[in-house]
Specification:
single chain, about 210 residues, alpha+beta, eight-stranded antiparallel β-sheet, three-stranded antiparallel β-sheet, 5 helices, binds zinc ion
């Protein structure tokens, strides 16, 4: 904000329209997170073969473009599943994979925050999550331009990986008494473990992730 104020003071009296457009341009450079979720994997894991970050959330959660731009690809791939690619004005390209649904078409111009689809489990994916990639320049098959998305996304308490501990279910446990024991709620337990809202079944020896407060 201070940067804008300084810039504004400099430009005020010269041209107020110029000021407005300069603020607009700066806003385009500030990205948003593509989904509200729990980070389950980071960039560069799997022997350097993981070129993005994974954000887990329930199937059907809105997935948004991190900045304005143009949809370069929207299709189904065997590995990415339903996937959307967006080219941004600053030359970056972002990739949103394993989507449940795709809401945009190739060539469509979209604004920051546009819902490009919903989070899913399509393609090579073992649970509902968004696989999100950032490429400095165009996406390539070899992914040479991939960079760590965390370098581009704003710091946010919501989306930094929450610390979790593992709890092994004992005979006679219920989601309710486990939630009570760890001072959390049944719903939070279900979300952290991708248990559907209609299902309360847990079994002995099952490993549950408990989010630390
Ligand atoms: Zn991934």
């Amino acid at each position: 904000m201070f940067r804008y104020v300084k810039k504004g003071l400099f430009i005020i009296g010269v041209c107020s329209i110029l000021y407005a457009s300069s603020v607009q341009a700066e806003d385009d450079d500030i990205w948003i997170w593509p989904v509200e979720g729990r980070m389950t994997d980071t960039f560069g894991t799997r022997g350097g073969q993981h070129y993005g970050i994974d954000l887990a959330a329930p199937t059907g959660t809105d997935v948004r473009t991190v900045a304005s731009g143009e949809v370069t690809k929207s299709y189904y791939s065997e590995s990415y599943g339903n996937v959307v690619f967006v080219k941004h004005t600053n030359g970056y390209e972002t990739v949103y994979a394993h989507l449940h649904t795709r809401n945009v078409k190739e060539g469509e111009k979209i604004k920051i925050g546009t819902v490009i689809g919903t989070l899913g489990n399509t393609g090579h994916s073992t649970g509902p999550h968004l696989h999100f990639e950032v490429h400095k320049g165009a996406w390539t098959f070899g992914k040479e331009n991939a960079i760590n998305p965390l370098a581009m996304l704003p710091d946010a308490q919501m989306v930094t990986a929450k610390e979790t501990k593992t709890y092994t279910v004992k005979k006679g446990d219920t989601l309710f008494n486990i939630a009570k024991q760890f001072d959390t709620s049944v719903q939070q337990l279900k979300e952290a473990n991708n248990i559907s809202s209609a299902d309360d079944t847990i079994y002995p020896m099952q490993k549950l992730q408990i989010e630390n407060k």
